[in-house]
């Protein structure tokens, strides 16, 4: 439950892709929902080819969502082995790194990458879809800051194909940084320094000397997010409260934030959970979805339901609820917490069916 909330904050950070087509909301209580945002200034007579391109881009964006939800469900399945453990992930970060690999892969490995990422278009369409997402993950306002850092740390003694380097840097805006894998101490220090700088000091130690054992390439993706609630919680209303598991058993006390306000809220039957949207900032770009399993429904069950329901399905029901219950007040209780996670992507990706052991070596 508590562990699920933070994980979903990272999972759904790309929810801004579903803004209304005019980029504005008619009321403060409507969800961030609508068709994907693409420029629409092309004259109608030239729209045929453009519409086909946009349709393919939308399918690629849908592929990114499908991968994210499947990945998150698989991560939840893995954590069943560790009861009451916390997990937190940005599947888009994983998707974007694997997308970089498709640019240099061939044969069966390329096919498995594309199948896993749920992309079936030519590379130009996929690149355009990636840039669309990445553009929304670059925000710097008075109320929200979002910044990403993708890098491939290559072995200086094993130069990368120049054409691939150009694509990585110019098309994907990622850094390709040659380092000396034989000089382990200086290299892992440099990589950690780069990641720490990108995350404003929040991740000072990401890689260890052990990570360089038999490695030829390190792919790093970090996503920094700092946002102010549109409707801030008053610290004076934060107090100790009992925290329960999905079966109603007390797990102890937490510092519980509370407020009463007009928020978008819906019970979603197929998800077997209640969903609350907490918007960030004033630009109608980002929000956090808090998903609370119904009593007796496990977090893992909801994670797998989420894969089937999809984000669009959730936002549609939030939109309907906003129209049906506009102006109604919702009492919100949200625990304060911090968490960190460590897990093997190899295990998760292998269990996502499409990768063979050979392709992951």
Automatic annotation (TrEMBL):
InterPro entries registered for this protein in UniProt: Serpin_dom, Serpin_fam, Serpin_sf, Serpin_sf_1, Serpin_sf_2
- A single Pfam family it belongs to is Serpin
Q: Which terms in the GO cellular component ontology are assigned? A: extracellular space
Q: Which residues form the Serpin domain?
A: 69-361
Recorded hits in SMART domains, A to Z, give:
SERPIN (SM00093)
- Which GO molecular-function terms appear in the entry? serine-type endopeptidase inhibitor activity
Q: Disulfide bond: present as a keyword of the record?
A: no
Specify the signal sequence span: 1-23
Identify the keywords attached in UniProt to this record, alphabetized.
Protease inhibitor, Serine protease inhibitor, Signal
Database matches in PANTHER family: GH21475P-RELATED, SERINE PROTEASE INHIBITOR, SERPIN
State the family it belongs to: Belongs to the serpin family.
Official protein name in the record? Serine protease inhibitor 77Ba-like isoform X2
Q: Which organism is it from?
A: Glossina fuscipes
Gene (UniProt): LOC119637786
């Amino acid at each position: 439950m508590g562990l699920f909330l933070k994980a979903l904050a990272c999972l759904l950070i790309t929810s801004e892709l579903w803004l209304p087509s005019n980029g504005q909301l008619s009321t403060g209580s409507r969800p961030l929902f609508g068709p994907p945002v693409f420029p629409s200034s092309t004259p109608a007579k030239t729209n045929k080819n453009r519409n086909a391109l946009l349709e393919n881009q939308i399918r690629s964006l849908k592929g990114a969502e499908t991968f994210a939800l499947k990945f998150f469900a698989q991560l939840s399945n893995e954590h069943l082995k560790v009861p009451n453990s916390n997990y937190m992930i940005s599947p888009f970060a994983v998707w974007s790194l694997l997308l970089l690999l498709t640019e240099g892969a061939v044969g069966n490995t390329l096919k498995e990458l594309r199948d896993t990422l749920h992309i079936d278009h030519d590379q130009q369409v996929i690149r355009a879809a990636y840039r669309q997402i990445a553009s929304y993950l670059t925000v710097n306002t008075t109320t929200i800051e979002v910044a990403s850092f993708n890098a491939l740390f290559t072995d200086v003694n094993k130069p990368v194909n120049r054409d691939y380097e150009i694509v990585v840097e110019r098309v994907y805006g990622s850094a390709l940084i040659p380092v000396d894998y034989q000089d382990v101490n200086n290299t892992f220090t440099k990589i950690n320094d780069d990641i720490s700088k990108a995350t404003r000091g929040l991740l000072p130690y990401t890689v260890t000397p052990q990570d360089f054992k038999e490695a030829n390439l390190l792919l790093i993706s970090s996503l920094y997010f700092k946002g102010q609630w549109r409707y801030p919680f008053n610290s004076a209303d934060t107090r100790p409260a009992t925290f329960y598991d999905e079966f109603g058993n007390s797990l102890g006390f937490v510092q519980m934030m509370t407020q009463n306000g007009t928020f978008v809220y819906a019970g979603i039957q197929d998800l077997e959970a209640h969903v609350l949207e907490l918007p960030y900032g004033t630009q109608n770009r980002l929000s956090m979805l808090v998903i609370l399993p119904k009593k007796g429904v496990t977090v893992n069950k909801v994670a797998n339901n989420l894969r089937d329901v999809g984000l669009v399905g959730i936002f549609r029901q939030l939109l309907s609820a906003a129209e049906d219950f506009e102006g109604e007040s919702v009492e919100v209780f949200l625990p304060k917490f911090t968490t960190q996670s460590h897990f093997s992507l190899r295990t998760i990706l292998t269990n996502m069916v499409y990768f063979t052991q050979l392709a992951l070596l």
